[in-house]
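Q: Protein A?
A:
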Amino acid sequence: MAEASDTQGILRQNLVDAGCEQEVIQRCVELAQQKRTGEIKRILARHRQTLLDVLHVNEKRIDCLDYLVYNIEKQTK
C-alpha cells in the first residue's frame, strides 16, 4: 500500500486497481513526472471506454441468459 505522500505509488496502485496493463501504468507514471496531465487523461479515457465496452458485452450476455431462463420457466408452467 502506498503512503499518502507517495503520489507516484498512489498513481500506480490506482492504475493497477483500475485494471490497467503494466505498459499503460509505466507510461502514465512517466507522463505524470513530466506533468503531462492531458495525455494521462486521454489514456485513462481510452481505458474507461474499453471497460465500458466489456461491460456492455457482458450485459448483453446476461440479458440472453435471462431470456433463456424466462423461456424455460414459461415452458415448464
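Q: Protein B?
A:
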Amino acid sequence: MLRVTTLLLCTIGAISTRPALGDEALVAVAASFVPPMEAVAAAIEAQTNHTVTLVSGSTGGLYAQIVNGAPFDVFVAADAARPRLLEENGHGVAGTRATVALGRLVLLSSDAAFLNARGLDALHDDSIRRIAIANPRLAPYGVAARQALEALGLWQALQPRLVRGESVAQTYAMTATANAELGFVALAQVLAHGADVAYEQIPDELYSPIRQDVIVLGRARDNAAALAVHDYLRSARGRAIIERFGYGIIGD
C-alpha cells in the first residue's frame, strides 16, 4: 500500500504486506503535487512488484535535504530550477530531468458566497485580515502568488495581512480551515480535497509558468522502482492522471 509522509516524517498509510519482489523508491514530492503523485504511485504498485513511498514538503526544503544527503531516489519538484541544479551538480542522473506538468494557481476561500460574489476583487476588501501564501523562498507557488499580487499592484499594500506557510500544503490548510480568509494554493489541492470551498483561478499571464519537473537522483540510477516512477510520469497513462488533477501538460 502506498505510503506518504511529510518533512516531519508523519507517516500516512501502512507498509505494504506484499512480498518484496521488486525495488523500493523513496520519492521526494512537492506538497502541491502530492494528490496526483499518490494516484501515480498507487498505479505503479498495482501494476508492478515495486514499492513507492512519498515524502512531501516544500520544493526548497526537499532540495536542501537532497544536497545534504537525504536518501531519496526521485525528486518531483514544483519548479524547474532545482532539478536542473541537481543535474548540474551531479546529484541527479543526467538525461532524466523532464517537465511532467504545469501547475495552476488559484485563490481559495472557505466562504464560498463571498468569493463567488467578489472574485479577485476580494483581495481589495478591507474586511480581509489574513491572506495565506506559501513562502516564496521555499515554494514555487509562493513565488507565483507574489508575482500575481505584484501584477495586480497589491504586493506592497497587502504585506501586513500576508501570512506565509512553509509549503503550499500549509497554505491550503490555513485557508480551508478559515484561519486565513483567502489563500493562494494549487488547483490540484482543491480538486483533490473536494471540500466545501470556493476558488478563483488566477490568470496564467499574471505569473511565470509553474513547471513541475522530475529527476532521478544519483543513488537510484539502477533502481528499477525509481525508473518506473520516472517513466510512468511521462507516459500517456501518467499524463491522464496528472490532467485529472487540473494540471496543464506541455504541448496543450
